TrEMBL record:
It comes from Rosistilla ulvae. Residues 407-416 have a biased composition (Basic and acidic residues). The chain crosses the membrane at residues 322-343. This is DUF4350 domain-containing protein. Keywords: Membrane, Transmembrane, Transmembrane helix. Residues 393-416 are annotated as: Disordered.
Length: 416
């Protein structure tokens, strides 16, 4: 059965083809999502941590993604956490981690959000290899991203956060740390010449830090019974601690590694040999290869088992979360329209009514088909001219030949 696409079918086809063409030919924007170690946001983003995670894999670690501190995370030997805000572990997260560290030799790697984006570094690198006519534009983009990075923090006093283990001081502007000291400065070769950060690490002081907010949970404070000692691993010339190792009497066989900046661990940064050397030192400090989970959190910090029944969406689950859920509804509706337009109509088969025998148009069509079968154009024009002369009485016209043949003429080759 031949079916016409109809106006809706053609409209749907054009819409689908146009959408595919637009998605293929559109200019791709730079992905700058921070802290992701999985999916396209982790592998394609210049601020992702998929490359750092791959370094664990290449050193025989079994890596996985975790989105809450749950029973599944309880089986891990190491947790790597890149928080997506200026925060430290909340009261509930600290209690969960304190128990987790005390059960067996384990390591927590906490990388503070002291660095926002490597986009200025990207434009600086791209400008070095760009054609001369594009370098000015790249320099403008680099300057714009640097200005935006400096204007994002709130100008004002220092924001300090503590969970009872350590205290993070976030400055209102970036500082460049260089001339490093500490154990890592002697063990890392080559050592990065400088690191950019807004955060510094210091020992928790019960007298001054007990009332500091823990992340966004300002009513939660942690008062540890057993003191937590801090060993600086990497310091700057000004005395700021950039990397530290925490130990406690509650978990003597475990450790917490804290970094004030992720600049040296992001995807783009790991293209530099010095940053890879620092990342390799961090992995070695973590311990022998085992199971490591990369904890992904949002602005509200780490979720603990029992906080909520809803987990963070990933992959295809993102299509059910706002704002993509609105787009998903329209795509589903468009799919139904395409099905209704392109697929045959379902239902019980019906016998079509036979064509009418008294329709003169059918007679004209049948005669035309017979003339076409003869394969003789001259004979067909003679018969048509005969019709116009004898039936319609015309003596001239586009279909009337100069000398109309007699009615009894037959096609050439017909002997009967």
């Amino acid at each position: 059965m031949n079916r016409s696409w109809g106006p809706w079918g053609l409209f749907t086809l054009v819409l689908i083809v146009g959408s595919i063409y637009a998605s293929v030919t559109r200019q791709r924007e730079m992905i700058t999502a921070y802290g992701y170690s999985y999916s396209h946001q982790g592998t394609l983003s210049i601020n992702g941590t998929a490359a750092f995670r791959e370094m664990y894999t290449l050193r025989d670690w079994d890596t996985q993604t975790i989105k809450r501190l749950s029973n599944a995370a309880d089986q891990l030997d190491t947790i790597v956490w890149f928080p997506d805000a200026e925060q430290v572990p909340s009261h509930r997260a600290t209690a969960w981690l304190d128990r987790w560290l005390s059960e067996s030799p384990r390591t927590l790697v906490f990388v503070a959000r002291g660095f926002d984006s490597t986009e200025p570094m990207y434009w600086r690198k791209a400008m070095a290899d760009a054609p001369p006519q594009q370098r000015l534009e790249y320099r403008r983009r680099q300057a714009r991203t640097e200005v935006l990075a400096e204007s994002q923090p709130q100008i004002g006093t220092t924001n300090s956060f503590s969970n009872g283990w350590f205290t993070l001081d976030f400055q209102s502007h970036y500082t460049t740390a260089q001339d490093f000291g500490g154990p890592w400065a002697e063990q890392i070769d080559p050592l990065p010449q400088r690191l950019t950060t807004r955060a510094t690490i210091r020992t928790f002081d019960p007298d001054t830090d007990s009332q500091l907010s823990t992340g966004l949970f300002r009513i939660d404070t942690v008062d540890e019974d057993e003191a937590v000692t801090m060993e600086p691993l990497l310091t700057s010339a000004s005395g700021d601690t950039l990397a530290a190792r925490l130990k406690s009497e509650r978990w003597p066989d475990s450790q917490v590694l804290v970094l004030s900046t992720a600049e040296c661990l992001l995807n783009l940064s790991l293209t530099e040999p010095a940053n890879r050397a620092l990342a390799d030192r961090l992995i070695k400090q973590t311990g022998p290869p085992s199971d490591v989970g990369f904890l992904r959190t949002d602005m509200m910090g780490a979720r603990v088992q029992g906080d909520s029944d809803d987990d963070l969406a990933a992959g295809m689950e993102l299509l059910t979360q706002w704002p993509l859920s609105m787009t998903t509804m329209h795509v589903v509706l468009l799919g139904f329209i395409a099905i209704l337009a392109l697929l045959p109509i379902f239902g019980r088969p019906r016998r079509l009514p036979p064509p009418a025998t008294g329709d003169f148009g059918e007679h004209v069509s049948a005669v035309a088909e017979l003339l076409q079968r003869s394969g003789d154009t001259d004979y067909a024009r003679q018969r048509i001219s005969e019709y116009f002369v004898q039936v319609r009485g015309e003596e001239s016209g586009p279909w009337v030949l100069p000398t109309a043949p007699a009615p009894e003429d037959k096609p050439p080759g017909d002997a009967n």
